[in-house]
Write a structure and sequence with these properties.
Elements (H helix, E strand, L loop, with lengths): L4 H15 L1 H8 L5 E7 L8 E7 L17 H14 L2 E7 L1 H7 L1 H16 L3 E5 L10 E4 L7 H24 L5 H4 L5 H10 L7 H8 L1
Parallel strand pairs: 1-4, 4-5
Antiparallel strand pairs: 1-2, 2-3
Helix pairs in contact: 3-6, 4-5
Length: about 210
Amino acid sequence: MPSSPASRHRCQEEQHKALLLYERELWAQGYQRVLGMDEVGRGSLAGPVMVAGVILPRDARLSGVNDSKLLTAKQRSTCAAEIRAVAVDLAVAERDQRFIDQYGIVAAVVSCQHEIIARLCPDYLLLDAFALPNVQVPQQALVKGDQKSLSIAAASIIAKVTRDAYMVEMDREYPLYGMASHKGYGTPKHRAALEQHGASALHRHSFLRFLEG
């Protein structure tokens, strides 16, 4: 039997309340600028890694926001517009494939995170899975944080939408690889294109060597 509109509304309210649990605890402790961060593109074979950071207001109302991996592209686009309208502050940082090849993916993500902190000046960090080294701002790393914190979930959506748009643009520059469909990840279609055409300047050669090894 389908649920009623009232039932769905209560469910959404409970989910929204649960996703703001960490932020509300921190706001109650006096923190004003709680920054949620998440990255996308860590495991891609091509293109940049991107990190987004989002600071939400105390009265944040974001319908449908959840881990970006659980949403359709259309839902993510709708949510991203809402996040940009509601957020107190947000930023996106990226490191391209050349940086990743030279310094490694972990250094690339950490570098992006430090850039966002410098730009947004938070007083507390909420991170997805991994703590951030060499930072004076207090922090908490949450396993599956994009499913537990509204700030992290919002960051995951902004990062995903921004990177996807970039990879669609790159598809026009590198049309042999189908970047618009797989966004640089190692799908069978992408691997077949690599075997046929070799790597492009957009590819992470360090990742390709790892696959070959």
